[in-house]
Design brief:
mainly alpha; 86 residues; 5 helices; single chain; elongated
Length: 86
């Protein structure tokens, strides 16, 4: 298998819409990481949920970076091609 055959289906396109949406996700995750104590006290069970809210904020930041770079479409294509053999 040559490199050309391996990479022919990888259609990467940068999109400003997904970049802005990714920035929104990163900002929401950063706010959750910054104010996790107040949010956990108001919405969750208090001290018990502090680490969960912090982890959710960090995961949101990671997902936001993936969406910002438009890599989520490549990941979806890889996963769906693995399961559905297209």
């Amino acid at each position: 298998m040559t490199k050309q055959e391996y990479t022919r289906d990888m259609n990467y396109e940068f999109s400003f819409g997904t970049f802005l949406f990714g920035i929104v996700i990163v900002i929401a995750g950063a706010v959750l990481v910054r104010y996790y104590q107040q949010i956990a006290d108001g919405m969750g069970s208090g001290v018990v949920d502090y680490d969960r809210y912090k982890l959710a904020g960090l995961i949101a930041c990671g997902v936001g970076f993936i969406v910002m770079l438009n890599f989520h479409t490549l990941i979806f294509e890889w996963v769906f091609s693995f399961f559905f053999n297209r």
